[in-house]
């Protein structure tokens, strides 16, 4: 009985994994094929991998774009985790009526489509450029600034803090830890999984962010990966083999981040602390 | 914890230093001018005596970007003062960036020159009246194919420098024709009804569809309308012209007849569109001449293709065997560096016929400068098309394309039509289809 | 917080605010400032730079705009069908993947997460190929004799909606799974042990322990998925372009079209955006209330 259940569980997961991974495999196969074969939906690996790679490296500076994307995504992730976890923790642990109201107002900022804010935000950065060109239009800092604090992540940290065993804080207070010390020495280590999840999500959305970098960046030297891929597809005669290869390369960093971080998802971690 | 904090600090430092370095290099460009000096009208404004940089935005590396590179080469060889900086974006990306930039009222980060599709040109010219430079002083509208002037000018001023012709042709598989008992002559200068008849026969004999269509893209209707000198909008470019427009009616009926004849292979995106003819699934491709490289991408079909004039609408006496699809033109932004930008365009796409013959030979791009419509490059046969002089043919058809005003709302109306055409194909009668589309367009566009 | 004297209480309040102040400032500058400008824009009309105030006209226009109505209708169909399905599926998968004894956990988790990092360009090409009239999905269904003729996944109004729903579920289930996996660490395994001893089936454990314990996170994912669906853009834009006709068009796609595809009517686009804000606020309040969370 248990064996049957176990077996059906593996079957179910394998099917789910296959469905999830199939388009990805197809992409990898396509990166070894010529464009004409890709549009035909050829499912077998071909001989064009080296051609595609050579053409890709000749036509665009993908390494530079990877570098830009890494700078943006790593800084966004680190800053976002710091700011949002402090805030999420603050809103839940030091709860007050006023803070609840402020929190609910903050939530409003997730609700507007970005398209509606784009023009005013760009105008704002026009002004910032006059004052501090270092973080103005056409800088990587301008990509990071408006995306590093999201109500979304604050909300996530707050909801996770609701599940955090508050007894641990009392214990820490008795040990004489300061309020900031409680956060650093008790909350952060206990909530590793939450940080791991937040890091994955933030890194991924920052890596894939398209609209805002498109608007704010100008010079090709600052191009991030999604902008580069969009450019590759701009032709009336797109080279799909080359595009697929570029996409495969661009997906690797997020996949690595995920694979490393998911190891922190250990079942019943808090339970085992107590 | 210290590790994390130092990591964050390090990444911040890294970010700032990197943006600082690149910030400096951006400062020399005409567009990213860090001071934002407002000496409009003078060349070399602001910059410290050295060379001036002109930034250009365009899409498609195999066509527009390749053309720009050739133009840049020729231009920079002639003078030392101006360097041209080409930046490639997808067309949709250019539209977003341009709209956001122009709307926010800051010229920072805008290019000096931008490529705009003719269908959208009036929209930009009228929505941002002061944003573009009047080019009347450096180019002559008479030098270009007449149908390109309507979309590129506004209020009597010539804003755009017309670029590629967009002239259409019917690309057709000669081997399928032969199997069905036809010759190329049988499909030359025909009307769409004859096209459908040929298509039925080909389907019967070879099992192949005659053409492929994406139901979300009404390019074919646009081609039919322009071939008769008519459009979705009246001459003023604002009033919807659907309900009482016999040309649109015939175009819709023809479109439906193709589906009824069961000779259309559906596709839902560009890659499937390309695949349909690269795979040999369709016998013909009625579209703009910019498709040539994509057709030739499938080497195994070499010698099996011909290009004939696009079919005309049989019932509309004004319809000719020539039309246009998706051409575009260059525009200079009215800001710092505009004169340098204007002189680049005037010296290259505005007058240089040698450049155009290079464009033709190297990338197969056909311009709309009249003076450049002949020459040895045009007289070369293309073996892929059985030795046919396709460029000479396209140049000839370019001259015959009827003139229409694309106006402000081409794509808005097309989205309404797309919905109504679905209803039409499902059995709604044509007059109410056109009436409903008209009513919707009127209420939406006001 | 049991501050006895008022200076203590003041200090405690200051500590609390210092945790949140940076976040609040950043959001005010980079979200609320542009949002207020967008709100003002929503009372203006005109194309491009020629804008003028026209009072409530834009908001009145919403009620007579048939394109808007269709987009709202479609979006709500996606919302009602897709969000509950995805939340349950993600919960179920996370439960399986949270099992300590499961082999190849890392592989399964990464595989199921992969769809949401797959680039949109590839995603749209692949999906359209899979779901084409003569695509792989149809061949599979035909060979298994599940259908007698190919399903028009992309070009039939009903099936195109299904395709979009499949696409969203495919892309975002793994994403939601992350939040559940991270939340499950907070559930004490001893609770499950006790339940097992009491003879509770795994179904009972799932509904009796997992779901109630994860409530804050489930609330979080429901609200963010609702927001995501009401702002749905990528899938529709890349797979069906809203078609056939406008059978799959979404509100966000309409905003995009109004701003960039048609004649740059940024004023009306802002109005449509604020209509989304209002709908989300209402739905979120309902969700907070249903979840019994005191934030609402």
Automatic annotation (TrEMBL), chain A:
It comes from the Bacteria. Keywords: Cell membrane, Membrane, Transmembrane, Transmembrane helix, Transport. InterPro entries: MetI-like. The chain crosses the membrane at residues 7-29, 70-89, 101-122, 134-157, 240-261. Residues 66-261 form the ABC transmembrane type-1 domain. The keyword Lipid biosynthesis does not apply. It is a multi-pass membrane protein. It is found in: Cell membrane. Signal peptide: none annotated. The keyword Membrane applies. Pfam families: BPD_transp_1. PANTHER family: ABC TRANSPORTER PERMEASE PROTEIN MG189-RELATED-RELATED, ARABINOOLIGOSACCHARIDES TRANSPORT SYSTEM PERMEASE PROTEIN ARAQ. Belongs to the binding-protein-dependent transport system permease family. This is Carbohydrate ABC transporter permease.
Automatic annotation (TrEMBL), chain B:
InterPro entries: Bact_solute-bd_prot1 (IPR050490), SBP (IPR006059). PROSITE patterns: PROKAR_LIPOPROTEIN. Residues 36-46 have a biased composition (Low complexity). Residues 26-35 have a biased composition (Gly residues). The keyword Aminoacyl-tRNA synthetase does not apply. The keyword Ribonucleoprotein does not apply. Keywords: Signal. It holds the Pfam family SBP_bac_8. Residues 1-22 form the signal peptide. This is ABC transporter substrate-binding protein. It comes from Paenibacillus brevis.
TrEMBL record, chain C:
Keywords: Cell membrane, Membrane, Transmembrane, Transmembrane helix, Transport. The keyword Transport applies. It is a multi-pass membrane protein. It is found in: Cell membrane. Residues 72-287 form the ABC transmembrane type-1 domain. It comes from the Bacteria. InterPro entries: ABC_transporter_permease (IPR051393), MetI-like (IPR000515). Belongs to the binding-protein-dependent transport system permease family. This is Sugar ABC transporter permease. It comes from Paenibacillus brevis.
């Amino acid at each position: 009985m248990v064996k049957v259940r176990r077996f059906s569980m593996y079957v179910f997961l394998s099917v789910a994994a296959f469905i999830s991974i199939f388009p990805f495999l197809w992409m990898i196969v396509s990166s070894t094929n010529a464009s004409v074969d890709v549009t035909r939906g050829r499912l077998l690996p071909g001989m064009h991998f080296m051609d595609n790679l050579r053409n890709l490296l000749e036509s665009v500076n993908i390494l530079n774009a990877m570098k830009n994307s890494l700078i943006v995504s790593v800084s966004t992730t680190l800053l976002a985790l710091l700011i949002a976890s402090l805030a999420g923790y603050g809103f839940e642990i030091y709860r007050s009526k006023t803070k609840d109201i402020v929190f609910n107002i903050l939530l409003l900022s997730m609700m507007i489509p970005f398209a509606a804010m784009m023009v005013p935000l760009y105008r704002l950065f026009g002004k910032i450029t006059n004052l501090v060109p270092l973080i103005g239009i056409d800088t990587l800092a301008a990509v990071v600034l408006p995306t590093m604090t999201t109500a979304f992540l604050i909300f996530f940290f707050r909801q996770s803090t609701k599940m955090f065993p508050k007894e641990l804080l009392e214990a820490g207070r008795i040990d004489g830890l300061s309020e900031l010390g409680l956060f650093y020495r008790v909350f952060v280590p206990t909530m590793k999984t939450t940080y791991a999840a937040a890091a994955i999500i933030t890194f991924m959305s920052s890596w894939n962010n398209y609209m805002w970098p498109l608007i704010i960046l100008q010079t090709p030297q600052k191009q991030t990966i999604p902008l580069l891929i969009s450019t590759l597809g701009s032709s009336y005669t797109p080279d799909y083999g080359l595009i697929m290869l570029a996409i495969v390369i661009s997906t690797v960093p997020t996949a690595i981040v995920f694979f490393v971080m998911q190891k922190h998802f250990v079942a019943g971690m808090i339970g085992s602390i107590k | 914890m210290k590790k994390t904090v130092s990591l964050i600090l390090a990444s911040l430092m890294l970010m700032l230093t990197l943006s600082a370095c690149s910030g400096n290099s951006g400062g020399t460009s005409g567009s990213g001018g860090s001071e934002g000096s407002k000496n409009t009208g003078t060349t070399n404004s602001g910059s410290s005596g050295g060379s001036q940089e002109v930034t250009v935005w365009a899409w498609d590396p195999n066509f527009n970007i390749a053309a720009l590179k050739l133009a840049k080469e020729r231009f920079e060889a002639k003078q030392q003062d101006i360097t041209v900086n080409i930046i490639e974006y997808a067309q949709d990306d250019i539209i977003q960036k341009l709209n956001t930039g122009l709307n926010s009222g800051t010229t920072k980060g805008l290019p000096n020159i931008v490529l705009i599709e003719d269908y959208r040109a009036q929209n930009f010219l009228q929505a941002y009246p002061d944003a573009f430079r009047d080019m009347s002083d450096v180019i002559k509208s008479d030098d270009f194919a007449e149908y390109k002037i309507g979309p590129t000018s506004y209020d009597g001023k010539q804003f755009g420098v017309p670029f590629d012709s967009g002239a259409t042709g019917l690309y057709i598989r000669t081997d399928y024709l032969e199997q069905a008992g036809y010759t190329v002559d049988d499909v030359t200068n025909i009307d769409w009804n004859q096209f459908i008849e040929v298509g039925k026969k080909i389907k019967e004999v070879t099992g192949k569809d005659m053409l492929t269509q994406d139901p979300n893209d009404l390019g074919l209707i646009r081609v039919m309308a322009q071939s008769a000198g008519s459009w979705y909008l009246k001459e003023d470019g604002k009033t919807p012209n659907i309900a009482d427009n016999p040309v649109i009616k015939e175009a819709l009926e023809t479109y439906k007849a193709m589906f009824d004849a069961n000779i259309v292979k559906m596709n839902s995106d560009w890659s499937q569109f390309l695949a349909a003819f690269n795979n040999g699934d369709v016998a013909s491709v009625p579209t703009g001449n910019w498709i040539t490289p994509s057709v030739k991408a499938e080497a195994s079909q070499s010698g099996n293709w011909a290009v004939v004039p696009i079919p005309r609408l049989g019932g509309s006496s004004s319809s000719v065997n020539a039309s246009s699809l998706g051409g575009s033109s260059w525009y200079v932004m009215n800001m710092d560096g505009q004169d340098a930008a204007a002189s680049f365009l005037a010296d290259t796409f505005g007058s240089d016929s040698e450049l155009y013959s290079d464009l033709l030979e190297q990338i197969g791009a056909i311009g709309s400068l009249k003076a450049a419509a002949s020459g040895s490059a045009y007289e070369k046969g293309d073996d892929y098309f059985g030795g046919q002089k396709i460029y000479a043919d396209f140049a000839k058809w370019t001259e015959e394309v009827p003139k229409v005003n694309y106006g402000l709302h081409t794509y808005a109306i097309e989205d309404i039509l797309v919905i109504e055409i679905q209803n039409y194909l499902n059995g709604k009668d044509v007059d109410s289809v056109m009436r409903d589309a008209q009513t919707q367009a009127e209420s939406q566009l006001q | 917080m049991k501050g006895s004297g008022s200076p203590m209480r003041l200090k405690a309040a200051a500590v609390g605010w210092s945790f949140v102040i940076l976040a609040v400032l950043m959001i005010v500058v980079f979200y609320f400032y542009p949002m207020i400008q967008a709100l003002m824009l929503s009372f203006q009309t005109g194309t491009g730079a020629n804008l003028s105030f026209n009072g409530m006209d834009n908001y009145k226009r919403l009620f007579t705009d048939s394109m808007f109505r269709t987009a709202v209708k479609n979006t709500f169909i996606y919302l009602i069908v897709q969000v509950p399905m995805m939340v349950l599926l993600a919960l179920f998968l996370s439960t399986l993947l949270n099992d300590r004894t499961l082999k190849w956990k890392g592989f399964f988790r990464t595989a199921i997460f992969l769809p949401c990092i797959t680039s949109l360009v590839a995603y749209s090409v692949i999906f359209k190929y899979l779901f084409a009239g003569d695509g792989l999905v149809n061949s599979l269904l035909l060979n298994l004799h599940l259908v007698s003729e190919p399903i028009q996944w992309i070009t039939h109004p009903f099936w195109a909606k299904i395709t979009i729903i499949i696409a969203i579920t495919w892309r975002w289930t793994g994403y939601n799974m992350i939040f559940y996996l991270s939340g499950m660490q907070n559930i004490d395994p001893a609770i499950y042990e006790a339940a097992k001893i009491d003879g509770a089936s795994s179904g009972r454990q799932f509904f009796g322990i997992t779901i109630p314990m994860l409530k804050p996170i489930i609330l979080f994912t429901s609200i963010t998925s609702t927001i995501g669906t009401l702002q749905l853009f990528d899938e529709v834009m890349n797979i069906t372009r809203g078609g056939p006709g406008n059978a799959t068009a979404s509100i966000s796609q309409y905003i995009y079209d109004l701003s960039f595809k048609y004649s740059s009517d940024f004023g009306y686009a802002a109005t449509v955006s604020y209509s989304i804000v209002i709908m989300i606020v209402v739905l979120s309040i309902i969700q907070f209330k249903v979840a019994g969370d005191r934030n609402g």
